[in-house]
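Appendix B, record 7
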Amino acid sequence: MAAVPTLMVVAMIVWVVTFAIYAPSLPDTDALMAVRDEPVITILAADDTPIAQRVTGGRRFVPLDEISPLLVKAVVATEDSRFWQHFGIDPIGIARAFVTNMTSGSVSEGGSTITQQLAKILFLTPERSLKRKLEEATLAIWLEARLSKKDILALYLNKVYLGAGAYGVEAASRRYFAKPASALNLAEAAMIAGLLKAPSALAPTNDLQGARDRADTVLGRMVAVGYITEDQMLAARARPARLSTEGSDDLGSAFVAWVLDGLIAYMGKPTHDIKIATTLDPKLQKSADRAVRQALASDGPKLDVNQGAAVLLRDDGAVVAMVGGEGTRGDGFNRAVAARRQPGSAFKPFLYLAAMEAGFTPSTIVLDGPIKIGNWTPQNYDNHYRGEVTLAKAFAESLNVPAARVIREVGPDKVVEVAHRLGIASAIQSVPSIALGTSETTLIELTGAYLPFATGGITNAIYAVRRVTDDRGKVLYRNEPAPRRVIEPGPAEAMRSMMQGVVEDGTGRAVAMPGRIVAGKTGTTQNSRDAWFVGWSGDYVLGVWVGNDDNTPMRGVTGGGMPARIWRSIMSATPAPASAPSVREPPVATAPASKTGPLDLARRGANWLNQLVDRALE
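Structure tokens (predicted):
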């Protein structure tokens, strides 16, 4: 016990010394609540016309009494239930977190208070170190000495990042629900409070179900601390927050949100106005929006389909159009980027490429007859067998049994390697059934992985930004494509031929366009829960998916039906190729593609935002 006073004296000395070091640079706390304009991000289309403007925070400081009490309670309950009792740091909370983490064997709970989090937002870098934690605690005590609890909470709620480019609860409330923070209901308040755990990953525009699941956790915490009743919790869970459709008709709204998520995640909040020149083609975006909307409006009700998405790429990897969702349940969730679905037979090109690389050819004969691999007994979609068929015919007609024989020959590991090499970033189970597309992926991953099929084996990382400039006209970033060969010419030509056969003589006949070379692959999952068409024509690669968010079956929809019709409508708007396609060898030595793929969020931002960080935050 004698050591306790000594430790307290040492701690006091450390605090005084640390405060003396930082005191000269600390701003007047009155300035922290000053009204000021926030930096503006202007997003430009491929022709440099403005398509959207976003303010990184609310235009003014929002006092605590203009924020819904439900949101205040949700944040306190989730982030710092002892906020009103502690003095900036919470020894009880730290001890509880320590015990929880030791018991669980992992870091599952933190001990930082809201005041510490505010200190980090206002004054510190994201660095993780003992020195940084000491500084954070010192600054937290200083804030508590200078400000009231209500002022600290108001500052925190105005400054914290909440995903989708929104800083502060006012900006987040308007971004997600098109209403001021004062008007949030319980479910909405819980969703916003839940974003504090991982704002970019849990942003409902990225992961709507994840945001709702986290909101359920927040509601449980509010019951545990006595802020709401169990009946109120159950009522809010029964009617989860829905994103506003306001602004969903803006040109490329899903694309804009996707770009901003990457920007903020890697450069932080800009301190100057910036302009982002993107790859979005306004004409093609309008065509894509119209094609998806019209198909769902005309055929959706009778086919039990209420959602669809599309991604259109130029063959250098540029995203020129993106539709994140439409239909009767339209919201801000971007299904083109965030929805993970089984691709069905749209995954087969990776299997057949693995076969071509192993020495098979399109004319290789394979038996379409009963087969059992372990406990797996695959069947063709029509439950009929055709005897001996060529690989080209099996691929064109999307026969499952020959595909199972092929994967038995080449091995699942080889197919996984091929898919990752071409750009599938999602985890893929190395099991025989992946021959039929049983591992989930996203539409943008799958579309990007078809790029090398369209270009004779050359691929580029997918990109959406051409350049970034600040308000002084200084170029902060300019995209530099880095093409690389991922398929050798022989197998690439074999796949090109077979994928054209899908359109000429197979399941993709509906996408044929007179006078144009068209190639691709259909995909349909069990009970028509997902339907796809991914393919290319000229200089463009396009992927289309239709299905239902709750994974309920559609009524007889296949990849060669509704998705193919949407695909043809969108692709018809692209410029027809002036001549036969040619293979453009990369100007540098070839290199293997990263297994993480070009579509992973981190890689999407890192190739340009890392250069942006140091200069944009001057």
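Remarks on this record: The chain has two domains: 56-244, 277-576+588-612. Residues 56-244 form a domain with the Penicillin binding protein transpeptidase fold fold (CATH 1.10.3810.10).
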